[in-house]
Amino acid sequence: MRLWILAFSLLISACSGGKAPIKIGLVLPLTGTFAVYGQQALRGAELAVDQINAEGGILGHDIQLIVRDNSTDPGKTVKHSRDLIIQEEVFALMGPVSSSSRYAMSEVSEEFSVPMFYGIDYEGRHFSPYLICYSTIPEHYIEPVIPYLKENSGEKFYVFGYDYIWPHRMSERLLQSVESVGGEVIGVEFTAFGVESYNDVLSRINQSGADNLMLILPGGDGFNFLSQMANYKFDKPVKVVAFAADETYLSNLSKATLEGVMTALHFFSSVDSQVGQQFVEDYRTLHGNEVVVTYSSKAHYDLIKLVKVAIEKAGVVDREQMLNAMKNLSLYDGESEVTLREDHHFNLPMYLAKFENGELNVIEKFGIIKPRDQRNFGNE
Fold it and tell me: Is the pLDDT score of 229 beyond 90?
């Protein structure tokens, strides 16, 4: 048995050029409410690793992903993160999805001085020397979307979302932005997870006379809400912007349910850029022609690529030197450029897309959006 283990170890070493792999621990919701985002994140990371290892790795080291399912549970997030660092000796962490789990993982990341890469929308203002956020934050999409809606669909806004950190912070930013363009927020509501009937909420939205509904309810509950909204008889049309809605909605809801719903993100599979279309082609080559490609896929793909560029710039596989080398690094150029700033957040290209006839197509390009420094909010 010992001889077999030794032979296997030598084989692994030979395949990786004799250098130990760079281990990245992924803690993602692969089951539960936010599973669609976790599954897409994993596939994006897998594509980047497949490409990098095929090209010789990073300074001769292959990348190895070690994956754990946290089921959107902060407690599991902490346990998995600690186990990955202590037992698996990972070089970095990646994930999770929810804000509560992100804060939990960030505490572990700081405790052990291990870099953490996050690739999902969130409320902003979370800075740590070990946290990198490839995230659309409120300023990325609220600032360009609100003027667009006021001009194209009306000045009255209703906000409805989950009762947790991200929707609350989004709501604050929405109120400020609507006021700045002379619009009016005529209703704000938050809801628990797992609500079965939204009839009372839909009635209040209808009675309010809102022109626009800002929906901050991603995942399964968002699917349920939109299904019920499609069957509700409104007195007048209400435009819907569903934050964090992506291509996965197409396989979970009917054409009629989604028709006319809008969403703003940093990537859609319909973006007509060379970078975007090459990513979609490579993704489907690895995962199959029928798979859905989303912004979560792209963010986690880019984060792995960023690790490669930064380590090669540093010239050594070292956490602190990698983080230092990442400052102001960019991937791509032109309208596809993404740049990591010193506040560990990104300048990102932003797009508005609409569900039409069973497709999600870009209808407006907002250009590269550069939010304010996320370290400079004081006691706001």
Answer: yes
**Secondary structure letter of residue 131 according to DSSP:** E
- Tell me the one-letter amino acid at 277: Q
Q: What is the mean pLDDT of residues 181-192?
A: 97
Cis-peptide into 96, omega within 30 deg: yes
CB 200 within 8 A of CB 232: no
* Cα Rg of the chain, angstroms: 21
Distance CA 372, CA 55 (A): 37
Least confident segment among 6-15, 28-37, 129-138, 170-179: 6-15
Structure tokens at 174: 């929405």
Q: 205 vs 34, which has greater pLDDT? A: 205
104-121 tens-digit pLDDT: 999 999 999 999 999 999
What 8-state DSSP symbol labels residue 335?
Answer: G
Residues 6+ apart with CB under 8 A from 187: 158, 159, 160, 204, 205, 208, 210
CB 369 within 8 A of CB 348: yes
What is the bridge-based pairing of β-strands 212-216 and 156-162? parallel
Could you give the C-alpha distances from 231 to 17, 132, 256, 260, 359, in angstroms and in order?
A: 60, 41, 10, 14, 20
The average confidence (pLDDT) of the chain is 93
Residue 167 to residue 171: CA distance in whole angstroms: 6
Residue 17 has what pLDDT?
Answer: 57
Ramachandran assignment for 164, one of left (phi > 0), alpha (psi -120 to 50 degrees), beta (any other): beta
Quick count: other Cβ atoms within 10 Å of Cβ 348? 26
pLDDT of residue 86: 98
- Cβ-based neighbour number of residue 19 at 10 Å: 14
